[in-house]
Amino acid sequence: METRNVTILGSGPAGLTAAIYTARANLSPLVLAGEPSSTSDQPGGQLMLTTEVENYPGFVDGITGPELMENLKSQALRFGAEILTTRASGVDLGTRPFAISVEGPSEEDSSYFTESLIIATGSQALMLGIENEMRLLGHGVSTCATCDGFFFRNQAIAVVGGGDSALEEALFLTKFADRVTIVHRRDALRASKIMQDRAFSNPKIDFLWNTTVLDVLGSDSVDGLQVRNVLSGEISRLDITGLFVAIGHQPNTALFKGQLDIDDLGYIQTMDKTTRTSVQGVFACGDVQDPTYRQAITAAGSGCSAAIDTERWLELAKHEAAQSVASRQG
Ligand code: NAP
Q1: What phi and psi values does residue 223 have, to the nearest 5 degrees?
Q2: What band does 37 get if pLDDT is binned at 50, 70 and 90?
Q3: Which residue's alpha carbon is nearest to atom 19 within ligand 1?
């Protein structure tokens, strides 16, 4: 099977920006885009679950997440990137070319070989880990206001978390719901000041401070939460018909454990302000290596860096291989 110059894992803003840049550098990138998931019917990363993106430079009036991803994808295809809707199930970074396996129906499609690899696998939503949360996921429990907000017209719902995600979800949900209660385990928010100001001044949003969710109530759909005040220990019921979990994200690095340097939080470690990882020829960009900024624009920016780092590394590797042949012959 043909060995690719570069393969990109992931099709969020980081992966597709890396695809645009490597395609324009004539490297004919292969993008393994991922697959539809329980939260999105198309790959494309977390922006597929976002409505308005107001802070991506260049869009004066904003753009929806799915539209932005469709634009990036079309742009990558225009320059010759090959994009497959499939998920890598294993990687072998021990020898070059690197081998990538995918779960597919045919033997022929089960492995790809690549001189270099750009990892842009992003991160995924964390869950509370309480008993009925997964059972009622899709039946009143959601991690995506964009996808599911519409179903909660004129209802009372709750959002768990105190970060920017929780406030963004809550603010968006006020377009549909009558009342949105933000349930937070402390008495201070982690979110940015501007988001706090917006949430505090929204008459449809109220806060349940110092409170954790003990259980999600309801048999076929959500009809309430059992909550506990962490200061008084008092347990009470909150009558709501929807719960949005917005407590952060986990980087998607399981495939690389034991093969790349990964930090305590699970993020791939990159070196010296580049996208280089601990393995030569492997680069990482976007949320999978970024515990700090985690924005669409920073992901796209690091996808550009990964493409340039990869292009330069491939050039150097080719030059060194040619020199080694020449010295053997001479
Ligand atoms: P985050 O900043 O890590 O906030 C997670 C929140 O969930 C925290 O308030 C945390 O409580 C709470 N939490 C965590 N585990 C919990 C649990 N088991 N039970 C109850 N509560 C729990 O995550 P995020 O809000 O997803 O934001 C991630 C990054 O993306 C941030 O840098 C953020 O600024 C950025 N972001 C930006 C925007 C925007 O600019 N429009 C939108 C979304 C996200 P504690 O506070 O007590 O730890």
Answers
A1: -125, 5
A2: low
A3: 128
Q: Which residues contact 293 (CB under 8 A, 6 or more apart)?
A: none
Rg of the chain (C-alpha set): 22
DSSP 150-205: GGGTT-EEEEE-SSHHHHHHHHHHTTT-SEEEEE-SSSS--S-HHHHHHHHT-TTE
Question: Among 35-49, 202-216, 221-235, 245-259, whose mean pLDDT is lowest?
Answer: 35-49
User: What percent of the chain lies above the pLDDT cut of 70?
Assistant: 95
Residue length of the chain: 330
Contact 258, 240 (CB under 8 A): no
Residue 100 CA to ligand 1 center (angstroms) comes to 33
pLDDT confidence band for 40 (50 / 70 / 90): low
Whether ligand 1 lies within 6 angstroms of the CB of 160 is answered as yes
Beta-strand runs (E) in the chain:
3-9, 30-32, 52-53, 63-64, 82-84, 88-92, 98-102, 111-119, 123-125, 141-142, 156-160, 179-183, 205-208, 211-217, 224-229, 235-238, 242-245, 249-251, 282-284
Q: Among this protein's residues, is 261 annotated catalytic?
A: no
Which conformational region is residue 173 in: left (phi greater than 0), alpha (psi within -120 to 50 degrees), or beta?
alpha
- Two tokens at 158? 């709750």
Q: Which of 143, 189, 190 to mutate to test the pocket of ligand 1 (most atoms within 8 A of CB)?
A: 190
**Segment 161-174, tens digit of pLDDT:** 999 989 999 999 99
Cα–Cα distance measured from residue 327 to residue 324, given in angstroms and rounded to the nearest whole number: 5
Residue linked to tokens 């964009």: 146
Q: Does residue 130 surpass a pLDDT of 80? A: yes
What is the whole-number distance in angstroms between the Cα of residue 3 and the centre of ligand 1? 41
291-311 pLDDT per residue, tens? 888 788 999 999 999 999 999
What does pTM read for this prediction? 0.76
